[in-house]
Amino acid sequence: MNKHAAILVALSLSACNDEVVDPLVTATGTTTVPPPPDGTGGAPVDPGPRVRDVYLRNPFGGPPDNLLADGDFELSITRNSTGQYGWRRYTQAGQKPLRNETGGLCKSGLRCARVNSGDVLYGTGAAAPDEAKHHASIWVKALEAPKNADSPCELAEAFVIHCSNFDVLDQLDAATLPDESGWCQFQKEVESSKVAICMYLQIGEVDVLVDNAVMLPAPSRDTASPPPSPAPPTIVRPAVRQRMAWLRDLLRRTRRFGAPSSSSPEALERED
Amino acid sequence: MNEGFRQLALASAICAALLPSAATAGEFDDRGIYLPDTSAIVFESFDIAPTHYLPADADLECNVEHYELLSDQGDALDGTSYLHVQTPENCPERLPFTIPSAKGSYRVKLWIRHGSADARLAVSYPDDVLPSLVARMAPTGRATSDGWIELASNELPVDGTQNPIFYLRFSDFASEDGVDLDAIEITPMGEYREQPTCSGASDPVCGADAICYGGQCRLGGLNVPPLPGDDIRDEMVDALELKLDIFFGGRKTRLLDLPVALETLTSIRGAQTAWQFWNGFARSIRELHDWHTRANGSITEGAVAGRLNACFIEGDADLSHAAWPQDPAYKDILVSHVGQGDTAGLNAGDRLVEVDGKHPIQWARELISIDWGYHVASDDTSFADFAEDLGGPYWAGGGEILKYATTFSVIRCDAISGTCSGTVETIDVSDMTVEGGGYDVVCDNRPSYHLDTSAPMTTAPGQEHYVFNTFFQGKVTQTTDEEKIFGMVFDTLYGGGDDNGYVNKTIRDAVINWKANARGVILDHRAGNGGTIDAPEYMTQLVRPQEIAAAMLAPIDIARWDGPETPGQGIAAFNRSKADQGYTIGSPDHDPNLPVALVLHREGSASDFLPHGMKGAPKVRLFGPGPSAGGFSTFIQFVYWGGISFQFASGDTITKNGDPLIGHGTVPDVIIDQKQSDLMVGVDTIHEAALAWVRSELKP
User: Fold this and answer.
1) Residues A87 and A98: beta-carbon distance below 8 Å
2) Position A224 confidence tier, pLDDT thresholds 50, 70, 90
3) Which residue of chain A has the CA closest to B172?
4) DSSP string spanning A141-176?
5) ipTM exceeding 0.90?
6) Can you give the pLDDT at residue A227?
7) Is the pLDDT of residue B591 over 70?
8) How far is CA B173 from its chain centroid?
9) For the segment B351-388, what is each residue's pLDDT rounded down to a tens digit?
């Protein structure tokens, strides 16, 4: 059966109805279902199962005051160029373009990163003003069965680091379980910094989606309460530390102090 | 008409017959079922595999269908089938559509999933009876829970009476193994518009939301994403504003330029058209007034008809001030050198006095409102970039006169008599004949080269001035073997962190050679394109003891940081970061007795760092007409959809004395202009001054 036979009915019943069908909502991904159309003229008709939700999302991602340059993975996706984007992907062979998933398959925005096991993601950021602490968070979703079924969110190791020397400020805590859509949140309150801070994500043993990385100034602590005891130093696995050192040196050596590109990285030949 | 469209048309007819108003375009019902736009002239739902189209001039290897029809899939956006597309990099897929045989204007919407796509609506005509046109596509913001996102173009005018080929050009990227495509919907939008020829950037013949580029009107809307809907426009502007506010710039550019850009960004919240919105955004990026900062779009892609095969530089028109006085704000603009063919009869030493009735630099600066190729130094007093871009080929970033001017006015000079005309000649760009042939000369601010290729181990650029990423070096012309004056011509400093790569090894080897064998060195870096910090660090090892000269706090350390307000704060920042981000110059093994002249004209970023690191060394002298660009930072890049990308500078460089450097180019020790009287007889004023100084300081 041709699929448009089905929508003819819909066009007759819905498209011809002058009520605007507009179940759009913004950003959060929740969907407002409009009230059923009036004027059906009789007993309620079972409309059938819901097929999909529809969202309206900011193509630049959010939140706008994110201290990560492209936390939502919307502006780092290129055809094949490897530049100084907000997010950069590294394999053992060096920087590679990011691949992406789309729409509601992502945690937020229109695009998210699709990353292979063993890869590293490096996210450019800035420290919060006024020596404020940071609330750092990132979401990861397994694309295949996690290796450790008892720890389904053991998908990556996420760190907040000093961009310049890769000193680790903290490692984000992984959620115990994924949320209802399979996403695992990694988050932590991270100390203040006087130099730029970045996010470093070492992907584990399965391919994953990564999205909605956020770093915001943490709410200031109540001054009446006693200061927290100093956090113990973060233990970083030797293999991860070695990889960090490699990337730190690579970034230092290749940081661009050069002329801007005169064309878009997406530019192909002009076909007109 | 395909089956899908037939049924859609039938549905539309039912609506039109039964009800006074039809459904809104391309919506979803409350179950999430897609309801095609009832006004669509094409709705491709991929019930059957589509037709594949390949232009006659396309690579025959692309004449393969790079898609497959996937049916009986419960998650098609529309119905039960969709197209899965996976294209090789240089073989975009093309899907043709039939449209009415009348003049019209159309937009396209479609949905993709599982990756990204370069999607364009295109029209071309048999025998090129009309210009081909392309409309880029970008997201509307609509997305579905099963992964579909909507892309749309702005309106594309089509003359259906001319038997056009009307098609979707589509290629996937950033996908695991191709992307899904469904529900292509082409609807009438706007009115047909001609694409007339034109003259000058603001020729009204092009109409609203269009520019005149290279004598041809270009519709702005074809080259930018759709106007963001009211529901998300403020969110999008907020995101752009805060990205700039948090990450952009160093002290000078944040205090002086960022507020201007943010004001422009605010204004686009009320944009009425896609071009107003996106060109306003791009203008705000240009208003950041930074050497590293620009917005890219397809409006400036493609060839420009004609050629002005001549290069211009700032200088001193010492032979023609009687005929045309010097401008109080800007230096004179002179012809530096010319190519072969299509030179408009210009010769070295001729003077460009006006473009469209304004001083050439003033004219170039005013292009900020429409020129997506606008490139400006961070230092407010440096205009060398503008002068360099006036002439030369568009493919090398030049050709501004050819792209945007109606007329330009010159004073011609005669090398034999040694005089210049007392009258000004105005040339209409559209009257310039194009003979073709010869070679395109590149503008590198060097009237000539001074490397003696008859000497052993000496190389020099050719008459085309194609220096680009090559180093040329050897014995300097008109010097004796006993003087042992060596020279180097280079534009790139992209060492890329590879000590043994071409750039760094060339510099390191040259430093060793010069320390052992030279009595004087002339470094010609007059088109300094920057690179990475290692290359200038290596070069400075020739001339001075080792020290950390500055700390490169880039990208920006702290969100919204305007930089150190006092030298004390600056020194604290320097001390905090010098170990990890230091600009380390010099070497214990430098040669304190070797005179080194660094010849400058237009240089930025790592090419700012080079003169900064050389200046002040005991046997170094910098020669040039003015400050370097002051681009003392790195940058962050962002890539959007529809050919839009942008990058902006982030961070600053703080000297050991606590001074922020962004926007403050390195000033030569000897400020010297090219003289008209020299250029017209083949003398390179700046080089001659450098050579004279080196001769006076030869190493014993």
Assistant:
1) yes
2) low
3) A79
4) EESS--S-TT-TTTTEEEEEEETTT--EEEEPEEPS
5) yes
6) 63
7) yes
8) 23
9) 999 999 999 999 999 999 999 999 999 999 999 999 99
Q: How many residue pairs from chains A and B have C-beta atoms closer than 8 A?
A: 396
Place of tokens 């996420």: A158
Residues 6+ apart with CB under 8 A from A192: A127, A128, A131, A132, A133, A134
Q: Is the pTM here over 0.80, yes or no?
A: yes
Half-sphere exposure of B601 (CA within 13 A, CB side): 30
Q: Between B606 and B80, name the one with better pLDDT.
A: B606
List all residues of chain A from 77 to 136 with a beta carbon under 8 Å from chain B.
Answer: 77-81, 83-86, 97-105, 110-111, 114, 124, 126-129
Note the residue count of chain A: 272
Residue B394 banded pLDDT, cuts 50, 70, 90: very high
What does each C-alpha distance from B379 to A70, A173, B77, B256 come to in angstroms? 28, 45, 52, 11
Q: From CA B427, how far away is CA B405, in angstroms rounded?
A: 10
Q: Please choose, from the candidates B388, B424, B394, B408, the residue with its C-alpha nearest in 3D space to the C-alpha of residue B312.
A: B388
pLDDT of residue B303: 87
Say yes or no for a CB contact (<8 Å) between A78 and B639: yes
Write the DSSP string, B40-93.
Answer: -SEEE--SSPPP----TTS-GGG-S--EEEE-S-TT-SSTT-EEEE---TT--E
Predicted confidence at residue B6, as pLDDT, reads 34
Residue B433: per-residue pLDDT: 84
Q: Are strands B652-655 and B42-44 parallel, antiparallel or unpaired?
A: unpaired
Nearest to B32 among A54, A77, A253 (CB): A54
- Asked if B638 and A104 come within 8 Å (Cβ–Cβ), the reply is no
For residue A47, say if its preceding peptide bond is cis, omega within 30 degrees of 0.
no
| B287 pLDDT higher than 90 | yes
